Please model this.
Amino acid sequence: MEKNTATTIFETLSSGVRLDVYRLLVRQGKAGLVAGEIAAALDLPATNLSFHLKSMVHANVVTVEQEGRYMRYRANLAQMLELIAYLTEECCEGNPEQCLPLLSSPCAPESSCCPKPEETQ
Amino acid sequence: MEKNTATTIFETLSSGVRLDVYRLLVRQGKAGLVAGEIAAALDLPATNLSFHLKSMVHANVVTVEQEGRYMRYRANLAQMLELIAYLTEECCEGNPEQCLPLLSSPCAPESSCCPKPEETQ
DNA sequence: TCAATATTTCAATAATTGTTGTATAGTTAA
DNA sequence: TTAACTATACAACAATTATTGAAATATTGA
Model:
């Protein structure tokens, strides 16, 4: 991942409105939501939501697909995982022994998102 | 982690200057760097660096410690891990089966930061 | 085709953030 | 205690981002 890609992701999620939109879409999973549903859920003017969605699509943290007259938005988890990998990669370069104890936590068994390999296959 | 904490972290890392500072400090590990060393490494005016460091300390992505007349800064990896956990937690809530395939990647064996448990102990 | 609906674009304005130089405060060492 | 050094605070200005309403674009269904 390039530096500009990372800062663009950070920038888009630095807004409370956009973080709300992102988390809402994450909760919806693959189903996603159309713009009007997002606006209703978060009580946002359509114009303002459109502004923020444009930023999020540009940062590739959400995807958009036309569905007739509707636009369906979905969270792009893959992009978030690439950002995490980018940060993880940086943190270990040179002296991995310093951050390994900390970095084991997102992979710990108690995390519902990172099961041990033998549990997923 | 609270929403405001997350947006503050995203905001502080949304600046190219601050991401440079963060990654520089991450590379230094526990040793960290004093402000003047950071300014020299990144060729920044002291005033401007001070402005950005203040933001990063406020977001708790770096820590600061007085050392005589110097101020030593260090990356706070724990805070980054909490942010990752916060995002990971959100992404799996409700329908974890949708994001599990994606989320296994940062735990993959090829990642130098997330070795399998049997390799660390 | 035409009216209704969904969403975006545009323009105007408000609010926030970034950069620089100068001044200030604290620390060190002679 | 004084001169040199490190870093931050402040003020001014430049640049960017956020919000809103009005207008435009595109799709649907009668």
In short: The longest strand of chain A covers residues 62-67. Confidence is low (pLDDT under 50) at residues 100-121 of chain A. Residues 15, 17, 45, 47-48, 51-52, 55, 66, 68-70 of chain A lie near DNA strand D (CB under 10 Å from a C1'). Chain A has seven helices and three strands.
